[in-house]
Amino acid sequence: MQPVKLCAFLVTIDLLIKSEGWELTNISTPIIEFKNVGLSYGDDEVLKNIDLELEAGKFYTLLGPSGSGKTTILNLISGQLRVTHGDIFFEGNIINDVPVEKRHMNTVFQDYGLFPNMTVFENVAFGPSIKGMSKKNIKTKVTEMLTLVKLNQYADREITELSGGQRQRVAIARALANDPEVLLLDEPLSALDYKLRKEMQYELREIQQRLGITFVFVTHDQEEALAMSDWIFVMNDGVIQQNGSPEDIYDEPINHFVADFIGESNILDGIMKTDYLVHFTGKDFENVDAGMRPNERVEIVLRPEDLDLTTIENGKLIVTIADQSFRGDYYEITAIDDDGNEWQVQATNKSQIDARVGLTFDPEDIHIMRFNESENDFDARLESYEGEEDAEK
Amino acid sequence: MPKSKQQRQLFYLMPYGLWLILFVVAPLVLLLFQSLTTQDGHFTLHNYALYFSSGTYLLMTFNSVWYAFLITIITLLISYPTAYLLNQLKQKQFWLLLVILPTWINLLLKTYAFIGLLSKTGTVNNFMSLFGIVPQQLLFSNWSFLLVASYIEIPFMILPIFNSLAEINPRLEQASRDLGANRWQTLRRVIMPLSMPGIKAGIQAVFIPSLSLFMITRLIGGNRVITLGTAIEEHFLVTQNWHLGSTIGVILIVAMVITMIFTRDRKNSRKRG
Fold first, then answer.
1. What angle do CA A75, A78, A82 make, to 5 degrees?
2. Is residue A256 part of a domain?
3. Residue B77: how many other CB atoms lie within 10 Å
4. Residue A96 belongs to a domain with what CATH number?
5. Same domain as A313, residue A227
6. What's the pLDDT score for residue B235?
7. What whole-number distance in Å separates Cα of residue A107 and Cα of residue B268?
8. Does a structural domain hold residue A299?
9. Tell me: the pLDDT tens digits for B39-52?
């Protein structure tokens, strides 16, 4: 295809998307809903009472370590697995027993699952041809999809002739060729090298926004999740630990697991003496949290990038530099305080090993986590004292 | 001891090379030589002329190909679903072993067992007589020949198909279903094309030996089915016309080579780009 024609073609796709108003499908019913969904193999409970709602047209990420149940959720949505209990809804209708091939969703698999006996074109054409689309329409559709993933020059190639990144693109084109309402992506980028992965993250996000369909993306890479998603579900042990926007999850991790899994964290034990006063490493600090019992035992999270090294006089804590490594845009510093706690600090300046320096942070950088607090309790507590604050004003 | 790598390779190849020359190449050359000579050692094309002008031999050839074809089709129709099913089972290696087990037993023994089963006083007729059915002549028919030949060949068809199916990434079946294909469409458009090498290997393993079956034709078919195998046996052991026997042998080998060419794995020679 010539560049001019290609441009015209892309404009046509854009116009089509705008004129057909694909975002109109987003009315109040969630596109996918889980109600008390569980899955067990014998006594092994892989998923425990999962409730979730996905709105149409958003980019969702299921994030968690391997064995956390994130891929299980994906397979339940796609229909590769069946629930042990609970219900799954698609646009308000129960789809528990709808077979895979009858669901309006398609999957991009981790190992791509491309048919080795078919060319790139034939792979992408597989879905449309199963649907009984005419030869002419199939050709249009495949060309459109290959253009979308920038592979229109490769239609006649064998799968074995493609690089990993190109195979990835074919898998995306093939899944999208069926016009799914939901695209499921099972760790699709994990086999790619760092640079390619970054590129694909950006492109996937772009494709999702251009097509306006719902993406459900599974990954164990927290950076990837933070960069791409509208909404993240953090999974561990078959339970959704926390869900929220990337900012929420990063800034307000609800428990030790989330704080540890998302980003780097310094996690310490502490005591919430009264509202807005927390005690840790033998000292009291002003903070911005409230609504807990007096002297409640809590965990404290301080992000390395929120910590600053300063003079001993200005420091809230005094630490000894134990180790440092250069990370390009910052120095990753390990420091030990007088109680023996280890602190990870991201500093712009180089330090001296064994130097004694001050460590400082702002009250709002101290994040408090209560033990066994659910997301709902957390939200309610936040609302209660934030409401108070507003009233005071 | 040999020094260079090439010399060493030659050294290791020697035992099998000798075997190959003595028991494969030499007999083939002798066979070809005999087919091209008369009883008193003169060079002649007479044997070939006789073969191709005789209706009997051509009919025999046709019979051989036809029965080999039928045996191949029957075994394929039974073996493909069996191999497919075996692959889905949890203890597939165990079940596969059961399928292969009969091949460890001598062909002649198995054939005799069938005589015991199918004869007028055999197990099948005894069982049928319980329902008041008069003993039937089951042996010495085309059907009994096809039955026994297919029974004997089935493991040789199942094994390569099973292997090629086992090699298929289960993800492909998942992907096919995910893209909207039902079980049957998945089988037809993804699994079958990908197991083609196994099907071809199975056809080779069944069709070629079936061309020259002779013992079963005699014991079970009662010489009602005359194939090239039977004809060769006849010429070597009964009429003692080794030259005509060799000619038929050469023709059989040519037929085998043609089959090999048609069923070879074309993937490697497929044009790229």
1. 60
2. no
3. 12
4. 3.40.50.300
5. no
6. 86
7. 31
8. yes
9. 887 888 888 998 88
Q: For residue B13, with 0-12 CB atoms within 10 Å meaning exposed, 13-18 middle and 19 or more buried, which class applies?
A: exposed
- Same-domain check for residues A285 and A194: no
Nearest to A149 by CA among A61, A106, A208: A208
Q: Using a CB-CB distance cutoff of 8 angstroms, which residues of chain B are in contact with residue A78?
A: 178
Same domain, A58 and A190: yes
pLDDT digits (tens, 9 = 90+) for B136-181: 777 788 888 889 899 999 999 999 999 999 999 999 999 999 999 9
How much is the ipTM here?
A: 0.78
- What ranges do the domains of chain B cover? 61-227
Q: Are the beta carbons of B180 and A175 separated by less than 8 Å? A: no
User: Which chain B residues contact residue A126 at CB under 8 A?
Assistant: 176, 179, 181, 189
Structure tokens at B72: 């191949």
C-alpha to C-alpha distance for B160 and B162, rounded to whole angstroms:
5
Nearest CA to A273 among A286, A256, A260, A261? A286
- Residues of chain A with C-beta less than 8 angstroms from the C-beta of B172: 113, 115
Interface test with B, best of A105, A112, A115, A182 (most B CBs within 10 A): A115
Q: How many CB pairs under 8 A join A and B?
A: 63
A359 beta partners = A309, A317
Same domain, A149 and A277: no
| Strand blocks (E) in A92-213 | 93-94, 105-108, 182-186
- Kindly list the distances between the CA atom of residue A22 and the CA atoms of A56, A59, A213, B237, in Å, as whole numbers in the listed order: 10, 15, 8, 82
**Does A149 share its domain with A231?**
yes
Q: Which domain holds residue A98?
A: 32-251
Residues of B with CB under 8 A from a CB of A: 169, 171-172, 174-182, 185, 189-190, 193-194, 272-273
pLDDT for the residue B72: 96
Rounded to whole angstroms, how far apart are CA atoms A42 and B191? 31
Shared domain check, A88 and A137:
yes
Which residues of chain A neighbour B179 with C-beta distances below 8 Å? 101, 106, 126-127, 130, 174-175, 178
Q: Compute the nearest-CA separation of B189 from chain A (Å).
A: 9
Percent of chain A with pLDDT over 70: 91
Residue A105 lies in a domain: yes
Query: Cα–Cα distances in Å, from A218 out to A60, A72, A77, A80, A100?
Result: 9, 10, 12, 15, 19
Q: Do B178 and A107 touch (CB under 8 A)?
A: yes
Q: How far apart are CA A371 and CA A292, in angstroms?
A: 11
Kindly indicate whether the domain formed by B61-227 is annotated with CATH number 1.10.3720.10: yes
Question: Which DSSP state fits B37?
Answer: B
- Return the H-helix or E-strand segment holding A88: strand A85-90
Of A80, A106, A117, nearest to B179 by CB-CB distance is: A106
- Pick from B179, B189, B195 the residue to mutate for testing the A interface (most A CBs within 10 Å): B179
What is the predicted pLDDT for the residue at A25?
A: 46
Query: What backbone torsions phi and psi does residue A36 show, to the nearest 5 degrees?
Result: 50, 45
Residue A136 resides in a domain: yes
Taking CA–CA distances from A115, the nearest residue in chain B reads: B172
Whether A133 and A111 share a structural domain: yes
Which positions ≥6 away from A223 have C-beta within 8 Å?
A: none
